[in-house]
What we know:
Blueprint lengths: L1 H24 L5 E7 L6 H20 L11 E7 L4 H13 L4 E4 L3 H12 L5 E3 L15 E3 L4 H18 L6 E7 L2 H16 L3 E8 L7 H10 L3 E5 L2 H13 L6 E5 L7 H6 L1 H4 L3 E4 L7 H12 L6 H20 L4 H9 L15 E2 L2 E2 L5 E6 L2 E6 L15
Parallel strand pairs: 1-2, 1-3, 3-4, 4-5, 6-7, 6-8, 8-9, 9-10
Antiparallel strand pairs: 10-13, 11-12, 13-14
Helix pairs in contact: 2-12, 3-4, 5-6, 12-13
Amino acid sequence: MSTRRNFMSQSAAAASALAFPLVAGAQPKAIKIGVLHPVTGALAYSGQQCREGAMMAIEDINKAGGIKSMGGAKIEALLGDAQSTPQAGTAEIEKMNEAGVSAVIGAFASAICLATTQAAAKYNLPHVVDIGVADQIVERGLKNTFRFGPGYRKCAEIAVANLHVLNTAAGKPARTVMIIHEESLFGTGTAQLLGRELTGYGYEVKEVIKHANPTRDFNNIVLRMKAVNPDIVIPANYYNEYALLVRTMQQQKVTPKAIYSVLGGAASSYKFVKEFPEAANGIIDCNHWFNPKDKRSAELRKRVEAKGLFYTYEIFNTYTAMRMLADAINRAGKADRAAINDALEKSTFSDHFMPYGTTKFVNGQNTGAQPLMTQVLKNDIKVIVPREYREIDPLFPLRS
Length: 400
């Protein structure tokens, strides 16, 4: 009996000795990716939402077997906080480079992305831009910078062309416009583009008003709006200021024929619709949006809401951009920065639920990326343009 017991224990020891190197060999080195967003400061809400999107994508990639071409290597996130300033974002890139990350995803705001992509370029560090809409980000010839979503020029052109179609179909009730924008690169650049596009279609831009971040009181701006009395109000700002501006308009009973947003920070946000349903009602927005006919977007929404979070563009944009980066790393077959940059440049990533089609980068911009037009009606956000993604017919003008 004891001989048999000895044999069993020896066999077990031999088996475990054999198994041990195999298990160790099957654990390839993790691939470090910098996840960099403004999770404190004025842009903290959006930054935290972006981070959540990146982390959910990393979790899904790792659960599905990691990076297959590298023996199932897992992605390991190195989290960075840009503190809502370009300088802090740059400092985080330096830290991430020292820590040996293979790529970076981020950093939400245009002004921060402009700084972080430039800092990463010194080290040939691949930088996937998740939101940052300023076109300067991809127009400096940086070989390490790749933006998955559309830039603000494309968004402004699509928004104004669609406004003109809606206005013409309604008998041209709207002729005058007022633009209210935040002071940084995103708001200023968007306002300039809009001014040019609107004038080209024959609209009169009555006034363009700039405000600081943060702004806690819009009473004076809305009093000015009352005096100017524009047919259309176009806000271009981040969530807090957008919500406060529209609520102040509601309180002061300022009711233009349409609130028509381009990359409006709150306009197509379920958070805004839930918190301020009356102020949100009828708002049209041209913004980052998912394909509503792809069931994967609804599945991700369920998971996000189960965490007690709102399904915002920051989450689904960063989620899909992270998957696009993982696809490039898989095709590169190694955690080498030059190889990843090359794989990103040649990306044909199409396994996503955005209304983009196949990814094609030209000078770092995904040329297939496009925004959708949405409208808040009956306490929900629905796609109105283009027709292939349409869920409801648009209501324009909102007030005669």
